[in-house]
Structures are given as structure tokens and as C-alpha cells.
Amino acid sequence: MNPTQLSLGVRLRDDATFANYYPGANAAALGYVERLCLPDAGWTESLIYLWGSEGVGCSHLLQAACLRFDQQGEPAVYLPLSEVAEHGPELLDNLEQYELVCLDELDAVAGRADWEEGLFHLFNRLRDSGRRLLLAASVAPRELPIKLPDLKSRLTLALVFQMHELSDEDKLRALQLRASRRGLHLTDEVGRFILTRGERSMSRLFELLERLDQASLQAQRKLTIPFLKETLGW
Fold this sequence. Notes:
The protein is an alpha/beta fold. It folds into two domains: about 5-160, P-loop containing nucleotide triphosphate hydrolases (Rossmann fold), CATH 3.40.50; about 170-230, Helicase, Ruva Protein, domain 3 (Orthogonal Bundle), CATH 1.10.8. Helices cover about 45% and strands about 10% of the residues. It contains ten helices and five strands; from the N terminus they run ααβαβαβαβαβαααα. The chain has helices spanning about 5-10, 25-35, 60-70, 80-85, 115-130, 150-155, 170-180, 190-195, 200-220, 225-230; strands spanning about 45-50, 75-80, 100-105, 130-135, 160. It has a five-stranded parallel β-sheet, with helices on both faces. Strand 3 (about 100-105), helix 5 (about 115-130) and strand 4 form a beta-alpha-beta unit.
């Protein structure tokens, strides 16, 4: 973990990997973010902006990219701006030392003059040093309340991808992928039972799967509908 993230208490989730991500309709975004992590990615492919509602996987892909860089022995930093904005735009100073900078929840600082100025200069430093920048927000760039014209101009250079919510069938496959990587077998029947009874967001569904994984290990039982009913009180 890099020193900036350590000092701020920001942690990358261990399960936020490319292998753990089921793309559904977001395959193009996944492909470009993975290309961003290649050693020979040029600046034209090194500024990507992902946007979408909570739970569609923006934060997952930003953290996965950081983890990929860590695995390659390259320095990367992940900053969820809603959590660190209170520290001020000085956080952006010297980030060009990292090969990859991931700024999540850009909406949290849009419209704030000091942050917009800091972001504009960071963009320029990253471009001049050949670094890569991965951004995420809940809305498209043109819908961000950016006041600084130069920063708006920089955002137009980004490859922009809208992240879409998974269909029910894709949510089932995503749960099965995550379960299999935990060593669990999740049948279609049990998976669909979870989808009909559980919360709809993928983050909540994955939390539920983690809870079931721990209960399954403790009870030494497979994931069945009776076991789910017993464990979750459904």
C-alpha cells in the first residue's frame, strides 16, 4: 500500500480485482480500464472517466486498477474524494509521482474553486509526465457542476463510459463468479432465491454472500435454500 493511502486510512478492498468483476453490459469499460494498466498505454488511452449510480462497479474498477499496478510493482494511488475532501486539494500535490492516479466520487469536489484549480494542475502534471488518470463520478462529465472552464476542457479529453446496472441474470452470474472464487458452489436455484429475497444492489448482495460464506464454513454446510432460510431468517 502506498504512503498516501496509509496516512489517510484509505484501504483497497482485497476482493476488488478484475477477475472478480462480472461486467455484463460494462464489458467495454472493463476492457479499456484493463488496457489502461498495460505498460505501453499512451496518454490518449490514459484518461478514463466512468460514471453511474451506486453499485454499478465504478469504485471496484478503480480499485482493481490500483491493485493491478501494485501487482506489477508500479506505484498507484486511490482517493475516494468524498472521504478525503476535508484534507483539502493539497492532497493532489505531487501525485504525478504515481504511475496511476484513481480519483473516485469526483462529484464531491465539483464546484469547489480550490479543488477545481488543484485538479486542473494535476491533470497537466500527469499528462506532462506520461502518467495515467482514472476518474469516477455519479454523473456524466457535462453534468458535473464544474465552474473552471479549463478543467471542463480537460474532462472533454477523457474516454467516457456510462456504467450500467446488471440485469437479474447478470447479477446471478456475478454472484456465482464471486462465490466460486470463494470456493462456494452457488446453484441457479439458490442464487435466484437470494435475488428475490435480498437487497438489489450488488454491494449488498456481495455482503450477504460473505455472511453466507462464513456461516457455511462454521456449520460445514452447503448453500441450500433451507440453510439460507435458517441463517438469514427468511
